[in-house]
Amino acid sequence: MKLERHVGGLSLARKANYLRARGWREEAGGWSSERFQPVPIARAIHHQLTDDLSGALCAMGWRVVGYSERGHVQMRDGERGRPCSLPKALRVQARRERRPVAELTYELFLAAIVATEGGPP
Predict the structure, then answer these.
(1) Which of 31, 66, 102, 108 is geometrically suited to a Cys-Cys bond with 56, CB 3.0 to 4.6 A?
(2) What is the model's pLDDT at position 9?
(3) Which of 28, 75, 24 is nearest to 46 (CA)?
(4) Which 3-state string (H, E, C) describes 92-108?
(5) pTM for this predicted structure
(6) CA-CA distances (angstroms) from residue 45 to 11, 31, 58, 83, 99?
């Protein structure tokens, strides 16, 4: 599942503002942050969405148990749940709340934008 699919069609300017608001820097080779060397904007968006969405799930009782070399997060539901990917964690949480995954994902994304920028995207 591509997380970017669930956050709507962000323009290039909004993508850049989203990344800058979270400490990313635009460089000749792409976008970089404290954790990542320069990567294309699509990869930077993916990494930042991963951070924002996993952080939002942590507030709902999920835990981050690790990251792969490619930056994919492993989540655990509470203390005893089995580790799973972020997309699976979003599906489980959406099922628990009885709503579509896209709706939950977009709501969590908007909450992260509002918290950082102080307003809607």
Answers:
(1) 108
(2) 65
(3) 24
(4) HHHHHHCCCHHHHHHHH
(5) 0.81
(6) 12, 9, 20, 24, 25
